[in-house]
Write a structure and sequence with these properties.
Strands 1, 2, 3, 4, 5, 8, 9, 10 and 11 form a nine-stranded mixed β-sheet that branches. A two-stranded parallel sheet has the order 6-7. The protein is built from seven helices and eleven strands. Strand 10, helix 7 (211-223) and strand 11 (230-231) form a beta-alpha-beta unit. The mean pLDDT is 93. The protein has one domain. The chain is α+β, with helices and mostly antiparallel strands. The longest helix has 16 residues, at 70-85.
Length: 242
């Protein structure tokens, strides 16, 4: 079992064995331990309103034929928004070391887990897609079309995130095996079972967590039935003035 890595062909120097980080609040980590399942959030639940959209440059180059009506174009848009509901994404940060901004944005009082691209990929089902994100200037760069690749392109403003995404689309067909826009995704995402002992290289406590907090975190991991290295953050420590 391994995810589809098709889009790595666009990243010639990408290191599959490089570190991936997932920053999360404590409640999400406890859920991960209890379920041994990664949460993939629906793309329509993300803060970025541009998730899954195409760029202005794309629309200027790829035009609809003159016989396509405005009603048909509106139907195309409804279709993309429907697929957006059923496109589920797990987001990771690609970096050798911890990132202070990621802690601030996603896990001020939480934890981070560290793995590698290769290990994460090997734990995911074959129907999942995994790839680094491409960052484009939507005002002048073309965004490729496709149900998956739309969600592997973000605006260039987000490039410091150095994001890797695993994507799982679970759109249900109707009785005829085609799209049924009446079916809604009310769950907001999907859980995917993984083997944490194979996938996780380390659990990292938040920066400046107390020794007691780190001890309690280790106890939580042990109580949950796992033997995972649980470490203090590299951002912790005491500054020197002299």
């Amino acid at each position: 079992m391994a995810a589809d890595e098709h889009y790595l062909k666009y990243f010639a120097n990408f290191n599959r064995h490089g570190n991936l980080w997932r920053y999360m609040e404590r409640a999400r980590f406890e859920q991960l331990l209890s379920s041994s399942a990664l949460w993939f959030s629906g793309a329509d639940r993300f803060d970025d309103a541009f998730e899954g959209s195409i760029s202005d440059a794309t629309r200027q180059v790829v035009k609809y034929p003159s016989d396509v009506s405005q009603d048909q174009i509106a139907q195309f848009e409804r279709g993309h928004l429907w697929w957006r509901e059923w496109t589920n994404i797990s987001c990771w940060h690609y970096a050798e070391h911890e990132n202070a901004l990621m802690w601030q944005a996603y896990a001020k009082t939480g934890i981070a887990i560290r793995t590698t691209f290769a290990k994460l990929s090997s734990e995911l089902p074959e129907r999942a897609m995994i790839s680094p994100v491409m960052y484009k200037d939507f005002s002048r760069e073309i965004v490729p079309e496709g149900n998956y690749i739309r969600y592997l392109v973000k605006r260039h403003f987000f490039s410091p995130e150095r994001e890797v995404r695993a994507i799982l689309i679970n759109a249900p067909p109707n009785e005829q095996g085609t799209e049924d826009f009446a079916l809604r995704n009310t769950k907001g995402g999907v859980s995917v079972r993984v083997e944490l002992s194979r996938m996780v290289d380390a659990v990292v406590a938040r920066p400046y967590a107390s020794p007691a907090e780190i001890t309690e975190l280790r106890a939580l991991v042990t109580r949950s039935g796992f033997t995972l290295p649980t470490l203090p953050s590299a951002l912790s420590g005491e500054p020197r003035w002299v």
